[in-house]
Amino acid sequence: MTKLPEFRILSAREQCSEAEWQMRVDLAACYRLIALYGMSDMAANHISARVPGEDNAFLINAYGMMYEEITASSLIKIDNEGNILSKPTFIGNDYGINRAGYVIHGAIHEAKHDLVCVIHTHSWPGMAVSSLKCGLLPLTQTAMRFYKIGYHDYRGVVLDLSERESLVRDLGDNNALILRNHGLLTVGFTIPEAFNAMHRLELSCRTQLAAMACNTELNEVPPQVLERTYMNYQPQTRRPYGVMEWPALLRKLDRIDPSYRD
Protein backbone atom coordinates (compact mmCIF):
# COMPACT_ATOMS: atom_id res chain seq x y z
CA MET A 1 0.00 0.00 0.00
CA THR A 2 1.31 3.43 -1.00
CA LYS A 3 1.88 5.62 2.03
CA LEU A 4 0.49 9.11 1.52
CA PRO A 5 2.63 12.04 2.66
CA GLU A 6 1.53 14.01 5.70
CA PHE A 7 -0.91 16.77 4.84
CA ARG A 8 -2.13 19.43 7.22
CA ILE A 9 -2.86 23.13 7.25
CA LEU A 10 -1.67 25.57 9.88
CA SER A 11 -4.44 27.64 11.47
CA ALA A 12 -5.00 31.10 9.98
CA ARG A 13 -7.14 32.24 12.90
CA GLU A 14 -4.58 34.66 14.35
CA GLN A 15 -3.97 36.31 10.96
CA CYS A 16 -7.63 37.26 10.43
CA SER A 17 -10.00 39.83 11.81
CA GLU A 18 -13.02 38.48 13.67
CA ALA A 19 -15.25 39.38 10.70
CA GLU A 20 -13.00 37.64 8.18
CA TRP A 21 -12.73 34.53 10.33
CA GLN A 22 -16.50 34.25 10.63
CA MET A 23 -16.78 34.61 6.86
CA ARG A 24 -14.18 31.85 6.46
CA VAL A 25 -16.12 29.53 8.77
CA ASP A 26 -19.38 30.12 6.90
CA LEU A 27 -17.69 29.68 3.52
CA ALA A 28 -16.01 26.44 4.60
CA ALA A 29 -19.41 25.27 5.84
CA CYS A 30 -20.91 26.08 2.44
CA TYR A 31 -18.29 23.93 0.70
CA ARG A 32 -19.07 21.03 3.05
CA LEU A 33 -22.81 21.44 2.46
CA ILE A 34 -22.44 21.50 -1.32
CA ALA A 35 -20.57 18.19 -1.02
CA LEU A 36 -23.07 16.78 1.47
CA TYR A 37 -26.01 17.49 -0.83
CA GLY A 38 -24.31 15.92 -3.85
CA MET A 39 -23.46 19.06 -5.81
CA SER A 40 -19.64 18.92 -5.83
CA ASP A 41 -17.35 17.88 -8.68
CA MET A 42 -14.28 16.53 -6.84
CA ALA A 43 -11.80 19.44 -6.69
CA ALA A 44 -13.44 21.41 -9.52
CA ASN A 45 -15.76 24.42 -9.21
CA HIS A 46 -15.69 27.22 -6.70
CA ILE A 47 -17.57 29.07 -4.02
CA SER A 48 -16.31 32.53 -3.18
CA ALA A 49 -17.10 35.12 -0.52
CA ARG A 50 -16.14 38.76 -0.25
CA VAL A 51 -13.78 39.61 2.62
CA PRO A 52 -15.53 42.03 5.01
CA GLY A 53 -14.02 45.49 4.89
CA GLU A 54 -11.84 44.73 1.84
CA ASP A 55 -13.49 45.84 -1.38
CA ASN A 56 -11.10 44.09 -3.78
CA ALA A 57 -10.62 40.79 -1.96
CA PHE A 58 -12.48 37.53 -1.78
CA LEU A 59 -11.92 34.02 -0.45
CA ILE A 60 -11.85 30.93 -2.65
CA ASN A 61 -10.86 27.26 -2.39
CA ALA A 62 -7.35 25.92 -2.82
CA TYR A 63 -7.33 24.11 -6.18
CA GLY A 64 -6.79 20.43 -5.49
CA MET A 65 -8.67 20.07 -2.22
CA MET A 66 -11.97 18.20 -2.08
CA TYR A 67 -15.03 20.11 -0.89
CA GLU A 68 -15.47 17.83 2.12
CA GLU A 69 -12.01 18.72 3.43
CA ILE A 70 -12.22 22.50 3.06
CA THR A 71 -11.62 24.37 6.32
CA ALA A 72 -11.72 28.01 7.34
CA SER A 73 -7.91 28.12 7.32
CA SER A 74 -7.52 26.42 3.92
CA LEU A 75 -9.19 29.22 1.95
CA ILE A 76 -7.03 31.51 -0.20
CA LYS A 77 -7.55 35.28 -0.32
CA ILE A 78 -7.26 36.79 -3.81
CA ASP A 79 -8.16 40.03 -5.53
CA ASN A 80 -10.51 40.42 -8.49
CA GLU A 81 -7.62 39.97 -10.92
CA GLY A 82 -6.59 36.64 -9.39
CA ASN A 83 -3.54 37.86 -7.50
CA ILE A 84 -2.99 35.92 -4.27
CA LEU A 85 -3.15 38.27 -1.30
CA SER A 86 -2.64 35.60 1.34
CA LYS A 87 -2.64 31.82 1.46
CA PRO A 88 -2.39 29.22 4.21
CA THR A 89 0.71 27.27 5.11
CA PHE A 90 0.23 23.79 3.65
CA ILE A 91 2.33 21.04 5.22
CA GLY A 92 3.09 18.16 2.84
CA ASN A 93 1.65 19.77 -0.29
CA ASP A 94 0.98 23.15 -1.81
CA TYR A 95 -1.99 24.55 -3.68
CA GLY A 96 -2.82 27.58 -5.75
CA ILE A 97 -6.03 28.72 -7.40
CA ASN A 98 -7.84 27.75 -10.59
CA ARG A 99 -7.92 30.45 -13.29
CA ALA A 100 -11.52 29.78 -14.31
CA GLY A 101 -12.52 30.38 -10.70
CA TYR A 102 -11.26 33.91 -10.45
CA VAL A 103 -12.38 34.83 -13.97
CA ILE A 104 -16.00 33.97 -13.16
CA HIS A 105 -16.07 34.99 -9.52
CA GLY A 106 -13.86 38.05 -9.90
CA ALA A 107 -16.15 39.37 -12.64
CA ILE A 108 -19.18 39.29 -10.38
CA HIS A 109 -17.42 40.57 -7.25
CA GLU A 110 -15.91 43.45 -9.21
CA ALA A 111 -19.18 44.48 -10.86
CA LYS A 112 -21.60 43.89 -7.98
CA HIS A 113 -20.11 45.20 -4.75
CA ASP A 114 -23.23 44.46 -2.72
CA LEU A 115 -23.06 40.72 -3.39
CA VAL A 116 -21.10 38.63 -0.88
CA CYS A 117 -21.17 35.06 -2.20
CA VAL A 118 -20.97 33.34 -5.60
CA ILE A 119 -21.53 29.58 -6.04
CA HIS A 120 -20.79 27.66 -9.25
CA THR A 121 -21.53 23.94 -9.70
CA HIS A 122 -21.20 21.16 -12.26
CA SER A 123 -23.84 18.82 -10.84
CA TRP A 124 -25.31 16.31 -13.28
CA PRO A 125 -28.85 17.75 -13.07
CA GLY A 126 -27.52 21.27 -13.57
CA MET A 127 -25.36 20.28 -16.53
CA ALA A 128 -28.25 18.31 -18.05
CA VAL A 129 -30.70 21.22 -17.87
CA SER A 130 -28.01 23.62 -19.09
CA SER A 131 -27.76 21.53 -22.26
CA LEU A 132 -31.52 21.63 -22.99
CA LYS A 133 -32.66 24.23 -25.49
CA CYS A 134 -35.76 24.85 -23.37
CA GLY A 135 -33.63 25.58 -20.32
CA LEU A 136 -35.25 25.50 -16.91
CA LEU A 137 -39.03 25.09 -17.13
CA PRO A 138 -41.37 26.55 -14.45
CA LEU A 139 -42.97 23.16 -13.82
CA THR A 140 -43.03 23.26 -10.02
CA GLN A 141 -43.49 25.87 -7.34
CA THR A 142 -39.79 25.61 -6.52
CA ALA A 143 -38.79 26.19 -10.15
CA MET A 144 -41.13 29.18 -10.41
CA ARG A 145 -38.77 31.00 -8.07
CA PHE A 146 -36.37 31.07 -11.07
CA TYR A 147 -39.03 32.04 -13.63
CA LYS A 148 -36.80 34.89 -14.87
CA ILE A 149 -33.42 33.19 -14.56
CA GLY A 150 -30.53 34.40 -16.72
CA TYR A 151 -28.66 32.37 -19.37
CA HIS A 152 -25.06 32.64 -20.55
CA ASP A 153 -24.04 30.99 -23.85
CA TYR A 154 -21.09 28.62 -23.83
CA ARG A 155 -17.82 29.99 -25.28
CA GLY A 156 -15.40 27.36 -24.06
CA VAL A 157 -13.64 27.01 -20.70
CA VAL A 158 -13.95 30.37 -18.94
CA LEU A 159 -10.33 31.48 -19.07
CA ASP A 160 -10.63 34.67 -21.14
CA LEU A 161 -11.09 37.89 -19.16
CA SER A 162 -13.08 39.32 -22.08
CA GLU A 163 -15.99 37.04 -21.11
CA ARG A 164 -16.44 38.82 -17.80
CA GLU A 165 -18.62 41.61 -19.20
CA SER A 166 -21.12 39.22 -20.80
CA LEU A 167 -21.25 37.06 -17.66
CA VAL A 168 -22.27 40.05 -15.55
CA ARG A 169 -24.71 41.27 -18.19
CA ASP A 170 -26.40 37.86 -18.48
CA LEU A 171 -26.72 37.55 -14.70
CA GLY A 172 -28.37 40.97 -14.57
CA ASP A 173 -30.31 41.55 -11.36
CA ASN A 174 -31.14 37.86 -10.96
CA ASN A 175 -29.71 35.71 -8.19
CA ALA A 176 -29.18 32.74 -10.50
CA LEU A 177 -27.64 32.06 -13.90
CA ILE A 178 -27.58 28.97 -16.10
CA LEU A 179 -24.29 28.65 -17.94
CA ARG A 180 -25.43 26.85 -21.08
CA ASN A 181 -23.74 23.49 -21.73
CA HIS A 182 -21.81 24.06 -18.52
CA GLY A 183 -23.59 24.31 -15.16
CA LEU A 184 -25.28 26.51 -12.59
CA LEU A 185 -24.39 29.71 -10.74
CA THR A 186 -26.08 31.51 -7.86
CA VAL A 187 -25.25 34.65 -5.91
CA GLY A 188 -26.35 36.12 -2.60
CA PHE A 189 -26.00 39.05 -0.24
CA THR A 190 -24.96 36.41 2.30
CA ILE A 191 -23.48 32.91 2.09
CA PRO A 192 -26.68 31.31 3.45
CA GLU A 193 -28.71 33.14 0.80
CA ALA A 194 -26.51 31.93 -2.06
CA PHE A 195 -26.58 28.35 -0.75
CA ASN A 196 -30.36 28.44 -0.39
CA ALA A 197 -30.65 29.56 -4.02
CA MET A 198 -28.32 26.83 -5.27
CA HIS A 199 -30.08 24.12 -3.27
CA ARG A 200 -33.46 25.15 -4.72
CA LEU A 201 -32.09 25.56 -8.24
CA GLU A 202 -30.55 22.09 -8.07
CA LEU A 203 -33.85 20.67 -6.83
CA SER A 204 -35.67 22.41 -9.69
CA CYS A 205 -33.34 20.79 -12.21
CA ARG A 206 -33.73 17.34 -10.65
CA THR A 207 -37.53 17.49 -10.67
CA GLN A 208 -37.64 18.74 -14.26
CA LEU A 209 -35.49 15.87 -15.47
CA ALA A 210 -37.61 13.38 -13.54
CA ALA A 211 -40.83 14.80 -15.01
CA MET A 212 -39.44 14.84 -18.57
CA ALA A 213 -38.23 11.25 -18.19
CA CYS A 214 -41.82 10.09 -17.70
CA ASN A 215 -42.40 10.71 -21.42
CA THR A 216 -45.88 12.10 -20.94
CA GLU A 217 -47.42 15.53 -21.40
CA LEU A 218 -46.26 18.12 -18.88
CA ASN A 219 -48.82 20.24 -17.06
CA GLU A 220 -48.32 23.93 -17.82
CA VAL A 221 -49.16 26.72 -15.36
CA PRO A 222 -50.84 29.90 -16.68
CA PRO A 223 -48.43 32.86 -17.17
CA GLN A 224 -50.27 35.07 -14.70
CA VAL A 225 -49.90 32.42 -11.98
CA LEU A 226 -46.22 32.01 -12.83
CA GLU A 227 -45.68 35.75 -12.52
CA ARG A 228 -47.53 35.97 -9.22
CA THR A 229 -45.65 33.01 -7.77
CA TYR A 230 -42.33 34.43 -8.94
CA MET A 231 -43.11 37.73 -7.21
CA ASN A 232 -43.92 35.88 -3.98
CA TYR A 233 -40.29 34.72 -3.92
CA GLN A 234 -38.75 38.17 -4.42
CA PRO A 235 -36.90 40.04 -1.60
CA GLN A 236 -39.55 42.73 -1.21
CA THR A 237 -42.20 40.15 -0.27
CA ARG A 238 -40.41 37.84 2.19
CA ARG A 239 -37.57 37.55 4.69
CA PRO A 240 -34.04 37.01 3.29
CA TYR A 241 -33.33 33.45 2.23
CA GLY A 242 -31.12 31.28 4.41
CA VAL A 243 -31.69 33.12 7.68
CA MET A 244 -33.88 30.46 9.25
CA GLU A 245 -32.14 27.25 8.15
CA TRP A 246 -28.44 28.24 8.28
CA PRO A 247 -27.97 27.69 12.04
CA ALA A 248 -29.62 24.27 11.67
CA LEU A 249 -27.34 23.42 8.74
CA LEU A 250 -24.29 24.35 10.84
CA ARG A 251 -25.55 22.13 13.65
CA LYS A 252 -25.91 19.34 11.10
CA LEU A 253 -22.30 19.80 10.01
CA ASP A 254 -21.12 19.95 13.62
CA ARG A 255 -22.74 16.56 14.25
CA ILE A 256 -21.07 15.06 11.17
CA ASP A 257 -17.62 16.69 11.28
CA PRO A 258 -16.89 20.07 12.88
CA SER A 259 -13.41 20.34 11.32
CA TYR A 260 -14.66 22.92 8.80
CA ARG A 261 -14.28 25.42 11.66
CA ASP A 262 -10.50 24.85 11.91
UniProtKB/TrEMBL annotation:
SMART domains: Aldolase_II. Gene3D superfamilies: Class II aldolase/adducin N-terminal domain (3.40.225.10). InterPro entries: Aldolase-II_Adducin_sf (IPR051017), Aldolase_II/adducin_N (IPR001303), Aldolase_II/adducin_N_sf (IPR036409). Residues 25-209 form the Class II aldolase/adducin N-terminal domain. SUPFAM superfamilies: AraD/HMP-PK domain-like. Belongs to the aldolase class II family. This is Class II aldolase/adducin family protein. The lineage of its organism: Bacteria, Pseudomonadati, Pseudomonadota, Betaproteobacteria, Burkholderiales.
